[in-house]
Specification:
Strand 21 and strand 22 form a beta hairpin. The protein has a 6-stranded parallel beta sheet. Strands 7-11-12-13-14-9 form a 6-stranded mixed beta sheet, sandwiched between helices. It has 538 residues and is an alpha/beta fold. The chain is built from 18 helices and 25 strands.
Amino acid sequence: MRPVYVTGHRNPDTDSIASAIGYAELRNRLDHDNTYIPVRLGDANAQTRWVLQRAGVSEPRYLPHIMLRVRDVMEQEFERSHGDESVRSVGLTMAQKDLDLLPIVDDDGNLAGVMTERVLARRYIRESREASSIADAPAMIGAIVDALDGELAVGEDHEVAGRVWVYAMDERWEDTGIDRGDIVVVGNRDDAQRRVIELGVALMVVSNGSRPSDEVLALAEEGGTAIVLSPLDSYVSGRMITLAAPCRSLMDREPLTVHLDDLVNDVTEEVKDVHYGAAVVIDHERPVGLVTRRSIVSPVPRRVLLVDHAEQGQSVQGIEQAEIVEILDHHHIGSIETRVPVRATFDPVGSTATLVIERFRQNGMEPSMEAATVLLGAVLSDTVILNSPTATDRDRAVVEYLEKRLDVDATEFGREMFEAGSDVSDATAEEIVTRDAKEYEVGDGTIAIAQIETVGPALDARRDELLTCLQKTRQRNGHAMSALMVTDILAGGTTLLVSGESAPVHRAFGHDGDDGVVELPGVMSRKKQVAPVILGAF
């Protein structure tokens, strides 16, 4: 089941995070075929942390991007073999399962290498016309017995590592090439059997179901030559011996590996270029999946549900690659584009949290006490305790409902919340001018407007510092204009600090503001009183 990530905008405020939490809860109750996960795109501010703590809710997990990761496309069900398994066993598995690659693990379950078709082919298609050998891939006699479906008649299981011969010549043939420690396949010829034992071979394989005489068996016992009885003919027996080598001796020890959170875009070319067309996904050295060429061709995108925004510049990084399943917002229709029709709500109320509560009630459900608490904080935050011009009768009805549900006084709750969130004495200028900053497209460029609520003139003494920081952040981000709304909830007004192209601001509000400071008494809402006016002036 692919999760649906429910997310607000970057530089999240209380409404953004609370709406993600509340709407994820509702969708999980209504849609049992999917899992909805609330996430955040940035650090929670002091106000939001206070609300979450009051509700006993943990911060949603941080989502740095929505781009496909390896874990999203990998094949989780895959074959693997141990390094002690024979080449024949591994080859049969690859043939039966139609595999181009098979991960090989060690005793600890860690990735040791991979077996590939190319490795197998290079093992058995050689330019050399010399005798076959397992000198570079020693095999246990027990593994050879298993490969031959044979019987160990003399000797004990131990490792052999010589050349492999089929002895078909007359016993008087002098230049056999056979040497001490080799492996020799012979038929039912007593003289040939004695001869190879005299040569000191490590293992003699008697083919075609033949059994040596007691004298030959005794001679082998005395000379230290193991004897295996094979039901197969001499040629096949010789080939099966070379297939009994452990696969670790032939595997590719430096396969292409990737990690769970690697971006698919970053590994695609490597997967395409490697001859076996796949990468092993490892987690703490253990193989946990495979990424193949097939899995990265038209992969299924990650899914996201957007709340409290519809601007691509405000959304999660990689949003253009994701599948947007729904948008729930109380702002204007932004620049987000979808590939297919989706359910999208743009409703002019004071807070997205209001829309979330209305959805609960429309479905005959009530939010949990935890969700109700954070959603109350969100409505009060976005409407400045219902004093903002954006506040509607629907917001007031939601607050009244939540007061009863939680048995709290909303005005007192809101005052505590704003007091807790307005302490910026320890905040840097960078943190202040980027907190809850939103980007807007204007012509071929962008502008940014941030907002911070204070209780009293807490930031008056830091205006020059904030203006300098605004200029630096504007230049760094390439904005035509950057502005900071310092909104005093007690005085019911805003001081607007501006850097960059200020003429539209002057046109919008009829103020000179050449020093970068514009006083806006009675202005409290960015969404209704500032952003649309400035955008219109551009």
